[in-house]
Amino acid sequence: MKFFIDTANLDQIREAQDMGILDGVTTNPSLMAKEGITGDQNVINHYKAICDIVDDNVSAEVIATTFAEIVKEGEALAALNPKIVVKVPMIKDGVKAIKHFSSKGIKTNCTLIFSAGQALLAAKAGATYVSPFLGRLDDISSDGLILIEDIRTIFDNYGYETQILAASIRGPLHIVNCAKLGADVITAPLAAIAGLLKHPLTDSGLATFLADHAKAAGK
Ligand code: E4P
Q: Which residues does the Swiss-Prot or TrEMBL record annotate as the active site (predicted)?
């Protein structure tokens, strides 16, 4: 399973990259705004800075919502760096644009997926990734994990190569459950990824090992 970090914060991206487990980055306009990145050129420079840190898979989201504008913006983003994945919203013109990008070999991430039908459409259009938003479904008392399971079944039934990129992850248990259900990728905040490290028995076990070692060494 691939691990992406869901942030536009360069320090957090560096920290995850330094752990040696990072396969990519997802951003969105809200995450860019949270880092205070505004203005077209600053946004572009920020994508370039992210590409300099990670090995591959940097999702850059288009702001446009019409086919012609999505194509123009997406092609410009894709031209920045071969690591760029053009992130396109699940709307009718977005699906059409994904088909266009796919025919030109431009990688895409279809975002804001909340139903299996939307994922199926994006896969048919040739999306590289679909991003079902787990946490936002959980937030409205709908089980996001069931959506992952349904998309996995549909993609496997027909051999779609589109990868399931589980998004809107809230914590480590979401990541583990996505892995159990066969999601190809998770994108999560650094805190959720770091949460996978934690277990009290690991901490107490290590403390005992170190104490016993020190005692045996006469320290
Ligand atoms: C996906 O690519 C989105 O950036 C993200 O996962 C949305 O998560 P949120 O619901 O925490 O905003």
A: 87 (schiff-base intermediate with substrate)
Q: Would you say the pTM of this structure is higher than 0.70? A: yes
**CB of 133 closer than 6 A to ligand 1?**
yes
Domains contained in the chain, number? 1
Q: How large is the C-alpha radius of gyration of the chain?
A: 19
The token pair at 133 is: 């938003």
Residue 92's domain spans which residues? 2-218
Catalytic residue among 48, 72, 87, 219: 87
pLDDT tens, position by position, for the chain (219 residues)? 999 999 999 999 999 999 999 999 999 999 999 999 999 999 999 999 999 999 999 999 999 999 999 999 999 999 999 999 999 999 999 999 999 999 999 999 999 999 999 999 999 999 999 999 999 999 999 999 999 999 999 999 999 999 999 999 999 999 999 999 999 999 999 999 999 999 999 999 999 999 999 999 997
Nearest to 16 by CA among 48, 44, 58, 46: 58
CATH of the domain at 203: 3.20.20.70
